[in-house]
Amino acid sequence: MSSRKTYPPKPLFLERMKKLLGKDFDNYLKILEKQPVNSIRCNTLKIKPEELLIRLENKGWGIIQPFKNFPEIMIIKSSLQPGELGRSLEHLLGYYYVQEIASMLPVLALNPKPGELVLDVAAAPGSKTTQIGAKMENRGTIIANEVSIGRLKILASNTERCGVLNAIITKKDGVSLCKKLKEQGFLFDRILVDAPCSGEGTIRSSNVTNLMWNPKTIIQLSKLQKSLLVSAIEILKQGGEVVYSTCTHAPEENEEVLDFVLNEFGKNISIERISLPIKCRPGIKEWNGNSYSKEVENSCRIYPQDNDTEGFFVAKIRRIK
Ligand code: SAM
Fold first, then answer.
1. pLDDT value at residue 3
2. What pTM did the predictor assign?
3. Atom of ligand 1 minimally distant from the CA of 148
4. C-alpha 106, offset from chain centre
5. Do domains 11-35+101-319 and 37-99 have the same CATH topology?
6. Could you report the per-residue pLDDT of 185-212, keeping only the tens digit for each?
7. DSSP E strand stretches across the chain
8. Which of 34, 167, 187, 240 shows its CA 20 to 30 Å from the CA of 214?
9. Which fold has domain 11-35+101-319?
10. Dihedral class, residue 65 (left if φ above 0, else alpha if ψ from -120 to 50, else beta)
11. Distance 232 CA to ligand 1 centre (A)
């Protein structure tokens, strides 16, 4: 039996989730009790999904590829020892990245192409930078930025392990970096703002999030998220796209941030509809007495009980002028 301490969700958090989910709140509570699914992303820079599948099956791991159009996404059905996924030879060789399925969705929405100029504003530990690198087939340029030196080291080691050769790693506050890039005249095809957030969507795999959860932090993060997203939009090419994502359900960190940039940039931007291979619910238009632009409905709320994943929020913003 595990002796690890667990923390219950705080009453205000539960109250907010109940308000968000209504009748579905009980299903949400149920899924939180369920063991998270083990998933990996095949690193196509190093190995084809069909070859990795054979190698992993030969180890005795039962593998499912849940999405026909994305064979790189794999679920491990066998029960594994704690840490086993990160200790295999295939992992060491960079053949796969251990990544929760919901966390793979922002890059599917971003859809970067070989040859493009892409900025990853908050990149560590590198799940999405390595996924972007694979989609770009190591052609074009990724600027992968991270503010924390400790996390930057993990980002560097993951990009190296996965054989991402077209990433330049920078250590800066995302807002200052975008300002500097703007002064230098850089304009990007695609930008990912996978923002620092309150992490409500990760409670299933990281119970300590319950302990850290705090409404004041949500307000502070919302301010940072707004400035990161505004700064990113300013260095987008005309026709370029920013994906904004968080692993939280808090509307202050999601729809409120989108509504803020819609007010800042007016008709120069639009929130695009995105199609993702799992069930998404539309962004909400009202929260705690505030109402948001109708366009925020084009964003995606991903709840754990809908797909047996973590919770996420994904939105795509296009620069029109
Ligand atoms: N995109 C990453 C991935 O998929 O592996 C996860 C990013 S995590 C949600 C957010 C990251 O933003 C953290 O590593 C955090 O250190 C970093 N961060 C926090 N404040 C930042 C800032 N002002 N500028 C840039 N990065 C920041």
1. 57
2. 0.98
3. 16
4. 5
5. no
6. 999 999 999 999 999 999 999 999 999 9
7. 38-42, 63-64, 73-76, 96-98, 117-120, 141-145, 167-170, 188-194, 236-246, 269-272, 281-282, 286-287, 290-291, 300-302, 312-319
8. 34
9. Rossmann fold (3.40.50)
10. beta
11. 14
- Phi/psi of residue 73, nearest 5 degrees: -90, 120
For residue 121, give the ligand 1 atom closest to its CA. 25
Does the C-beta of 127 come closer than 6 Å to ligand 1?
A: yes
| CA distances (Å), origin 207, targets 35, 125, 200 | 12, 19, 10
What CA–CA distance (Å, rounded) separates 78 from 66?
A: 15
Regarding the beta carbon of 37 and ligand 1, being less than 6 Å apart is answered no
Maximum CA extent, the chain: 58
Tell me the fold of 37-99: Alpha-Beta Plaits (3.30.70)
Digit-coded pLDDT (tens) for 5-16:
889 999 999 999
Ligand 1 pocket mutation, candidates 108, 130, 146, 245, criterion most atoms within 8 A of CB: 146
Nearest CA to ligand 1 atom 22: 173
